[in-house]
Design brief:
The structure is a homotetramer of 269-residue chains. Chain A has 269 residues and is an alpha+beta fold. Chain A has helices at residues 8-27, 36-51, 109-118, 134-137, 162-166, 177-187, 207-230, 240-250, 255-266; strands at residues 60-64, 71-75, 88-92, 97-98, 124-128, 159-160, 192-195, 199-204. The A-B interface holds A 145-149, 151, 219, 222-223, 226-227, 229-231, 234-239, 241-242, 244-246, 248-249, 252-253, 256-261, 263-264, 267-269 and B 8, 12, 50, 56-58, 77-79, 81-82, 107, 129, 131-132, 134-136, 138-141, 168-173, 196-199, 225, 228-229, 269.
Chain lengths: 269, 269, 269, 269
C-alpha cells in the first residue's frame, strides 16, 4: 500500500516536476501518425459525451493508437465539449506525451495509461463524473443491469476506494502511475469501475463501444435507483446469460446510436 | 413453451440467414405504394418520439398499410431521430421486407408483424425503451392511469416476461415470429404491454394516437412513481368509467398536441 | 349535486350542440377591441407557459377584457406553444365566443368563464396539467409554500374532486358552466386549486402575475416533494405572515422574470 | 436581535425611501472604472449562472472592485440571463450605488455589501434560489461533499434562519444592512450559507471560483439527496483532508469548465 505525500503543496509540486520531466522525455521520440478517422472519432466521442451529459467541464476519453499498441490518444487538458482534432495528443503507456509543445496535460492521464498497460484487449477508456453514477460509488448498493442496453454491467461493477492505495488524505485524483495501476487492478475484467467520491471509468474495445457503455451506464444508474425505490428493493435484473447474450447482440448495432449522437453533438445551435 | 437456441453464435447466425431468405422471398412480390401522407406522418412520428425522449438510438414505430391491411410500413434499421421518407420500407405480416435492396432490417420487426396479424383493429405500433417505464417492468407495481391524459392505461398494462416464451437465456430481443406472437398475446386488448428488462410496446388505431399514447405512458410512469412516494403508496387513480370516458374524449383532440410535437421535432436548431 | 349524463356519446353530442348554439348567440353581438398590448401579453403568456413546461399540447391561459369586465380573451382550441395574435377570441361570462367564425373552442372554457363570473377581482386564469403538481392532486399531501417565490400558496391550496359535482363517471373535463362554477367555488380565495386526476387552475390579478404563479407552483411542487423525502416529512414551510409579506414584495417585481421568460420563449431555435 | 417593522406597508415604504437617499448620497462621489475584463467576466458569470440553472429570473452575482476594495460591482435589478456590460453598477460597502441614474437596484444588495465588509478575503458573491439546494435549507439534513468537485463544502454549510435576526414576520428578503450583516456572520469561514425558505449565498476568491462553487453546490445537493435515498442514509462523504486537498487542486483548474460554460451561455440559439 502506497502512502501519499502528506503535505499538499509538496505533492502538487512533485506532480508539476514529474509532468515537465515526462514532457521532455517524450519530446525526444518520434510521433506516429494515427489514421485520420481515429482522430475524428475521438473528437466526436468528446463532443458526444459532453452533449449527452456524461462529462461536463471535466472527464476525458482516450483510444489506443491504431498502429502502435504502446501508445494512446487523448486530448490536452480542456473541457471535452470543446475538443477539436488539433487538441489530440499522443501518449506512451507511462503517461508521457509526445510533442506536448507546452500544452497542459490531464493530471489523471494515468488512469488511461495504466489500464492500457494492464489490459491489452482494451482499446478505449472514458473517465467521467457521470452524475447518476456518483451515488452508487458512495453507498453499498451495487450497480446491476436493469435492461438489455446496459447488459455489459452483468460482468460486475467494482468500486475503487482510493484510501486503499493512496491513504486517507489524497486529493481524490489518480495523479500517478501507482494509483492508475490500482484502478486498473480493481477494474479487472469488468466494463466499468466506480471511484468512491469521484466518478467512474468505462472501458471498451472501440470508441463507439466505450461511448455506448458510458452513456448507458449513466442511464442504468438513474433507472436502477428509481426502480429500487418503486419496488422497495425488489427488482428483477438481467441474469448472467441474458446479460452476456444481450451484450453480444448490442455489439452488432453500436453504429446505430452513434450516428444519432454524433448528429446531435455537432448540430448548429 | 419455446426453448431458445442455447449457443449465442448459433442463434445470431440463424437470424442472419433467416433475414436473408426473407428478403429474397419478399423481393419477388410487388410493392404497393402507400399514400404520401402516411409516409410523411410515419416520418414525423419517428422524429417526434425521438424529440420527446420516448426513443433514443433504439426503438421503432410502424403503421399498417393504408390500402393493404396485410402489410405495414417501418423504417430500415436506424435511429428514429434520423429517419426520412426514403428510409421507410414495406413489410408483410411475417416480417418480410418488400424491396429491401440490401438495407438492414430491425431485428425486432416481429413485434410489429405479429401484433398486426393477431389484432386486425390495430393500425400503429411503437416499440421503445422509454426510460420512466423501465422500472415498472422490473418490479411488481402495476402502471395505472394517474390522470386523464393517460386514461388509456385503464384497460390494464400487462408485463411480458420473455423467459416464459423464450427461456432463461435469450438476448432479450423479440427476434422471431414465435416471440412476436407471444408479445401480441400478452398485449391482449390493452394499449400498452411492458417487457421485463427491455422496454414496452404501445398500440393504437392511428399514428397520431399511438404517438400520443407512447408519450403519455412515459409521463404517467414518471408521475405515478412520484405520487406513490409522496402518498406512501396511497394514490387515487382514475376509475374504470372515468378512464373509458376520458379516452373517448382524448381521441377527439389528438391533432392538438400532434401539431406542437411536429413543429418541435422539425424546428431548425 | 349534479349528475353527469351517464352515456358518453350523449354528453359529447350535447356538448357539440351547446357549442354551436353558443356560437350563434354570440355572433349577434358586437366585439369590443382590446388594447393591442393585452393581446401581445396573452400570446406571450401562451408561449412562456409552453416554453417553461407548465403546459404541453394542452392547457390554456386567459385574461379578462381590459375595457369590458364581462368578457375575457382566450385562444381558439390549439396548443398554447403555437398561439399567435389572430388565434385569440373574445368570450362572454357564459363561455360564448364572439365571432368564432367556425374555429373550434376549448371544451373547458367554462373554467375561465365561471371563475371570472364568481370572482370579480380575478383578471387572469391558467389551466394546466403542470406535471409536478399532479401527484399533489391524487394524494392527501397539501401543497404548501417551501420558499418565498411560491409564497402565494400560503392562502391554501384546495383540491377539486370532480365526483362531488359531476358524479363518478365523467370524462374528467370541466365541460359545462355547472362544473366550472364548482371549480370556482372550490378555489375560493386561494391562488391555486388542484383538480384530482387532471391538473390545476391558477388565478391572478394580471397576466404577468398568473404566469409567475403557474411557474412557481410547478417548481414548489417539485421542491416540496423532494424536501419531504429528504426530511422524512419534517419540512419548515413559510408561516402565514412570511407568506403574505413575501407575496406583497413579489408583486412589485413580476416584470423581472417576465422579461427573461419572454426572451426565452420567442428566441429563434 | 433586530425586530422588523410589523406592518408590511411601512417597511416597503421605508425601503423605498432608504434606496432613494442612498442613491443621492452615492451620486456625489466619483466612480472608479474597473478593468474591462472584470466587467466582461461579471457579465459572463450572470449568463453562465442563468444558462446552468443556478439562477432564474432572480438571483445575482457580484465581484469586489479590482482597484478599490471598498467597492463592488453588481448589475441593476434585472434577470441575470439578460445582463450586459452597461447594466453593471458600482456600489460601496453600505450598498449605495454610484451613478445609478434612476436605475432600480436589487433590494438584497446588502447580502453582497455586508459580506464584503465582514470578509476582506472574499472577492465574489452569488445569491441564488438554486433549486436542489432549497430542500436542504428547510430540513435538518446538512449539505456535505459527496465528491471532489464539491469538496469546498467540507468547510461546513450553515443555515441562516431569518427569524433569528428579523423576527417571524419578514418578507424573507435581506433588505437592509442589519440582515446582511447577520448573513455574513452566519457564513463565517464557509464557502456556502443556506437561507431557510429562500435560497443560498456562495462566496469565492474570484468570479470563476464563485461560479464553479455555485454550480457544484447545486449538483452536490441533487446527488446527495439521491445518495441518501439509495443508501437509506448511509453515504460515504469526503473526509476533511480529502476535502481540503481536492479544493486546492480544483482551484488550479477553474478555467477549464469556465471556458465551456461561457461558450454554452453565449452560443447563438
Amino acid at each position: 500500500m502506497r502512502k501519499s505525500v502528506p503535505l499538499l503543496g509538496a505533492f502538487l509540486l512533485a506532480g508539476a516536476v514529474a509532468a515537465l520531466e515526462a514532457a521532455e522525455a517524450a519530446a525526444s521520440r518520434a510521433k506516429a501518425t494515427p489514421h485520420p478517422d481515429v482522430i475524428d472519432d475521438l473528437v466526436a466521442a468528446n463532443r458526444i459525451l459532453s452533449d449527452q451529459g456524461v462529462v461536463d467541464g471535466f472527464g476525458h476519453v482516450s483510444v489506443r493508437h491504431d498502429t502502435d499498441p504502446t501508445r494512446f490518444l487523448l486530448a490536452r487538458s480542456m473541457a471535452p465539449g470543446l475538443v477539436s482534432a488539433n487538441d489530440i495528443l499522443e501518449f506512451d503507456l507511462d503517461g508521457n506525451a509526445f510533442e506536448p509543445r507546452g500544452r497542459t496535460l490531464y493530471v489523471e492521464r494515468f488512469i488511461h495509461s495504466e489500464i492500457y498497460k494492464a489490459h491489452p484487449d482494451i482499446k478505449a477508456v472514458v473517465h467521467s463524473h457521470s452524475p447518476s453514477i456518483i451515488p452508487f460509488g458512495v453507498t453499498d448498493v451495487p450497480l446491476r443491469p436493469i435492461y438489455h442496453m446496459s447488459s455489459f454491467l452483468g460482468a460486475g461493477v467494482p468500486v475503487f476506494e482510493i484510501r486503499e492505495a493512496g491513504g486517507a488524505a489524497t486529493d481524490m485524483l489518480i495523479r500517478d502511475p501507482v494509483l492508475g495501476a490500482a484502478v486498473a487492478r480493481k477494474l479487472g475484467g469488468s466494463a466499468v469501475v466506480l471511484m468512491r467520491g469521484h466518478g467512474n471509468v468505462v472501458v471498451g474495445q472501440s470508441i463507439e463501444q466505450v461511448v455506448f457503455r458510458a452513456i448507458y451506464t449513466e442511464i442504468n444508474a438513474k433507472l436502477q435507483a428509481e426502480a429500487l425505490r418503486l419496488g422497495r428493493g425488489e427488482v428483477a435484473f438481467l441474469n448472467a446469460e441474458e446479460a452476456a447474450n444481450a451484450t453480444a447482440t448490442n455489439n452488432l448495432v453500436l453504429g446505430r446510436p452513434w450516428e444519432l449522437w454524433k448528429q446531435q453533438a455537432f448540430r448548429p445551435r
